[in-house]
Design a protein that fits this description.
Blueprint (H helix, E strand, L loop, with lengths): L3 E4 L3 H7 L7 E4 L12 E4 L4 H11 L4 E4 L6 H14 L3 E4 L12 E4 L2 H8 L5 E4 L17 E5 L9 E5 L6 H11 L3 E5 L8 H8 L4 E4 L9 E3 L2 H7 L5
Parallel strand pairs: 1-2, 1-4, 2-3, 4-5, 5-12, 6-11, 7-8, 7-10, 8-9, 10-11
Helix pairs in contact: 1-7, 2-3, 5-6
Enzyme class: oxidoreductase
GO biological process, one term: cobalamin biosynthetic process
GO molecular function, one term: precorrin-6A reductase activity
């Protein structure tokens, strides 16, 4: 009987967690809502790097690590791959396919925060959908810009920024209404993939708005990769 350690925090991870057994563990970093309706155990908090995760794997007799974290959680993914390798257990990863630009899209790819802010220089009303990172830069907003930051965190508005605390999935109708009301002139996004937050890209396309897109980080090699929760669940041993 294989005990699974599922590293999650995404909607796909929760779909996998709902199929796990009582002896399995669903691990969350602690951001966002913690589910209380799962059959498996739920662990909240960090491990202390790859060495701490290796100790946990060995002490808890974990037989399979599944990395279903966000595509931009590169450090957690690296720690998981290293810890599993050191503990000599397999590591599987759910690698959600990236979005691809379509006809009419104006994507401006950037690698980091400095490139991102340089790409935003011509614009006045950006919508940030990067998570919490912009919150650390609210005192750096150029005089000609007013920022809208959508993330899970509640945060007070400032004189030059509005914080929109919201959790996906987001509907096409809702995104259309938001863009029309706030008159954004550029969208800032991670290439997260999946359908839960894709509607914003369609609205940007409809309104002919540019998208400043943060490139995905490089992720470590693992024993098996899957492009959907369904395909991973099909491969999971029924007797685990």
């Amino acid at each position: 009987m294989t005990r699974v350690l599922l590293l999650g925090g995404t909607g796909d991870a929760l779909r996998i967690a709902r199929q796990l057994a009582a002896h399995d563990v669903y691990s969350l970093a602690g951001l966002g809502k913690v589910p209380d309706d799962l059959c498996c155990a739920v662990r909240v908090g960090g491990f202390g790097g790859s060495e701490g995760m290796q100790r946990y794997i060995e002490q808890e007799a974990i037989g399979l690590v599944i990395d279903a974290t966000h595509p931009y959680a590169a450090q957690i993914s690296a720690n998981a791959a290293q810890a599993a390798r050191s503990a000599r257990v397999p590591c599987w990863a759910l690698r959600r396919p990236a979005w691809q630009p379509q006809a009419g899209d104006d994507w401006r790819m950037v690698a980091d925060w400095d490139e991102l802010t340089a790409a935003l220089a011509p614009f006045a009303r950006p919508l940030f959908t990067l998570g919490r990172e912009p919150l650390a830069h609210l005192d750096e907003i150029p005089a000609h810009q007013f920022w809208f930051v959508r993330c899970l965190d509640s945060h007070a508005d400032t004189a030059r920024a509005r914080i929109l605390a919201a959790r996906g999935p987001f509907t096409l109708e809702g995104e259309r209404a938001l863009f029309a009301l706030q008159r954004f002139d550029v969208l800032v996004s991670k290439n997260s993939g999946g359908s839960a937050t894709e509607a914003k890209l369609e609205v940007a396309r409809e309104r002919r708005l540019p998208v400043v897109m943060l490139r995905r980080p490089s992720l470590p090699a693992v024993d098996r990769e899957f492009d959907s929760a369904a395909s991973l669940l099909e491969a999971l041993p029924r007797s685990h």
